[in-house]
Amino acid sequence: MLSIDNLHAQVEGKGILKGINLDVKPGEVHAIMGPNGSGKSTLSTVIAGHEDYEVTDGTLLFQGSDISDLSADERAHLGVFLSFQYPVEIPGVTVTNFIKTAINETRKGQGLEEMPANVMLKKIKEKAKLLSIDTQFLSRSLNEGFSGGEKKRNEIFQLAMLEPKLAILDETDSGLDIDALRVVANGVNTLRSKDNAIIVITHYQRLLDYIVPDFVHVLHEGKIVKSGGKELALELEEKGYDWIKQAM
Model pTM greater than 0.90? Predict the structure, then answer.
């Protein structure tokens, strides 16, 4: 589904990614771990197509096609979803209206007609129930006055509604208490299938107690320096990232 080969990227002339190799297949969950400044969030934004980041070398294939020159919108229309670490507030735009617009813009980009209102409403109710979201929540302005847990739950609701092929969750556990973490993780697990793939970016092993990855990769100074199974996250929790540096 996603194939990254020798990916180099920079922002404002500063090299951040320095040769990333990663292969993500349908049905898989990959966890990207690493200390601050290692390039984790840069990797997520480069995959999603953030315009401030320039790919200087390597290839980025999604479902067999090179997406390096595609805009963020075009990548989203193909099925790439990025959950932000710090979701923005949009006063005056309700959660429901935002998701309606997002879905119909995606359908437009795919050459489809807008989703009929009755079908949209049914889907909203189904996904809200699946994620234990109160319908009153959907009438609030997007992220305005939301707690950290509410913002992350809203991101997972968007994920559920858009049904992307590839979901990238950038430190979705940041700032969450244990109850909110469980709610978000349960939502992600409910949406896992053999037809989609998930990349989870996190500092800590605790999220991986709830979203169990198939593969764990450690990023250091812009490169993946170690990969393994879920047990690698436990080893990192025990030994810290200095262990990885010493082993290099």
Answer: no
